[in-house]
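thought: fold this chain, then report.
action: predict
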Amino acid sequence: CYPENDGDIRQLVQTIFRQDNVSVDSDGMTVVLSRLGNDHAANRAEIEKLALLAGPNGALTFETISEALGDNAVLAVDDVADAVATGNVQALSKALSKAWSEEANCVMIVRGCQNYFSQLGILGYAVLAGQLPQNAVRKLRPPIHFKLQDALIRHLKNWQPKHCLEMVNRLQDI
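observation:
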């Protein structure tokens, strides 16, 4: 087990997928990069599982990858981001406990929160440009899990886009 970064994981995905000529869309690749952690052996096993799922000359999409990699840890991380955005310390403590029990690692949690606030900022700018929140949230890429859409729209009331980007920067410092 050694630390991996997005470039290492991307290269591993490309190497394994190339063996069976498996293609993946950009949203799908984003999900892979956001959900895999620092354990090379575990990453390889998950990527090989995806290649097996696609089959030779197959294709993987955001939806397929989301289901295959499991939503439990990701939804737990989303709960952490929601609690942070809400400012609810008790909910944050509960969400962190759930995330740890779902084997989410620290990097996954921080990246998930960065992604959440980045999307919230993008959504805020879209609304300021005149889009309806419901339409803007559906246009976000990678697509937002349906359970998160209402939370993002709800947080628009309390988070200005520039503050969301400041939060992303603070999380980057972590």
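thought: worth noting. The longest helix spans residues 106-128.
final: tokens above.
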